Amino acid sequence: RTLRNGRTLRLTITLNRAATIRALVAKLVAGRKSKGRCVAPTKKLRRAKKCTRAVRKRTLSAQGKAGANTLTVKAKGLALGRYRIAITATAGGLTSPARTVTFTRKR
Known about the structure:
Elements: E1 2-3, E2 8-15, E3 19-34, E4 37-39, E5 50-64, E6 67-74, E7 81-91, E8 94-95, E9 99-105
Parallel strand pairs: 1-9
Antiparallel strand pairs: 2-6, 3-4, 3-5, 3-7, 7-8, 7-9
C-alpha cells in the first residue's frame, strides 16, 4: 500500500460487537542489535547485526459499531518512509489480538 501527499489511507475493520478501536502508527527505521534488543544505530554499534525498529508516531482511536467500520489515516505530518499500523479492538475488558498493516509514505 502507498500513501501519497494530500491523500488518506482508508482501513476497513469488521467487528462482531461494538468496541473501541485503537490504531498505533509506527515508522519502521533502521536499528542495530544490542543486548538482544533493537536500538538506534550508533558509531559503537556499527558492526552489530541490523534490525528494523518501530518508532511510534501517532495513535488513533474511534468508537466502532458491530459490523464494518472505516478508519482513515492522513498523510499530513508523516515523513516519507515505511510505516506499520497495529489495530486492536477493546470491548468489555477484552482486547483483540493486534492486526498489522504496512504501508509506504511517498511524495
